[in-house]
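Hey there, shall we discuss this one?
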Amino acid sequence: MRTAPAIAVVAGIVLACAAVRAYAGVPAGCTRIADIPPDYAITYGAAIQALFDDYATNGGSAGCIDCHFAPPPMPSGGLDLSAGASWGHLVGVPSGEDEGILYVVPGRPEDSLLFRKVNCDTPGVGARMPLDNYGGGLLPEQQALIYDWIANGALPGTSSTVFRDGFDIRGFVP
């Protein structure tokens, strides 16, 4: 008889933890990108890697690789976004913060931690990137470019397809 109440308590704890986990994964405070014209032809190196290298539009120089690069001693968050390494460290790869979330899910930007991190104040895991708005942060157009690249299949070369069998509203629209 003691096992039934114990099982009920354990089941309740598991359900409570699952509810907290599901809630924690909901992004909030996301920048609206729905009105930015889509980009259907994206070259990974020239567009996405270029943002990782230098996204600053204020005449300065700031890029994701300022923190996310190979040693010393290791890239921030264990994520190397330097040229030649970034695509392989992002696409289909579990996040270092939560192995249940992939950095990039081809064709599904809203499920991709990379897009959530650059687009939302509360991405569901960790903090918005760049951290503390380093270098002025990413413009909505730059965030939309990352969205479009993922929606187009997150290809390592050039994408030239219309994503999702046509155009639909992008981003987390309230």
Observations:
- The longest strand covers residues 28-30.
